[in-house]
Amino acid sequence: MLARLLQALGIAVVAVPAGGLLFFHMSGSHDSPLVPIAMSAARAPQTAMPYTIAAIIAARVELPENLETPQAEQTGAHLFRENCVQCHGAPGIAATVQGMTPAPPNLLRTGRRNDPAEVFSKIKNGIPGTAMPAWGDQIPDQSIWALAAFLHHYRGISADAFDALSTTEAEPGEGTH
């Protein structure tokens, strides 16, 4: 199933040796260099590159122009409050869903990376092996990009600022449903 997903994204799966590494051609061409992906840190050689499937997919995603507009970020904040806070929490708001393994991360903590392309890919496709579902069939891409813009721009946001931004509905237009 993973091989089919990666092939659909134009990433050719080359080999899955017993050593626990997957090898991919990033460009989808057999002429490109092989990129090793460690599947098990305990079995991976020291030279393996620490790529994740989300990072591979994100590398194939083009960022929209003018991603972080105030309107898109406000839309993203509203969508985050409505759809994500239950599991991930927010400044001043505890997650209400408990007991997930692994526990959902605090996506708004200071210092978090939140690369927009990776965030988009994780929201759209979900994260295998976790409780993070794929939202791509429920939320339009433009709205997922708004979430990615919000999560990237507002890392470390205060509880008061989050409340103000996420409870005000964005004007219709860019970054909205």
TrEMBL record:
Residue ranges of every copy of the Cytochrome c domain listed in the record: 71-155
Alphabetized InterPro entries for the sequence: Cyt_c-like_dom, Cyt_c-like_dom_sf
Coiled coil feature spans: none
Assigned keywords, A-Z: Heme, Iron, Metal-binding
Gene3D superfamilies xref list: Cytochrome c-like domain
Signal peptide: none
Protein name: Cytochrome c domain-containing protein
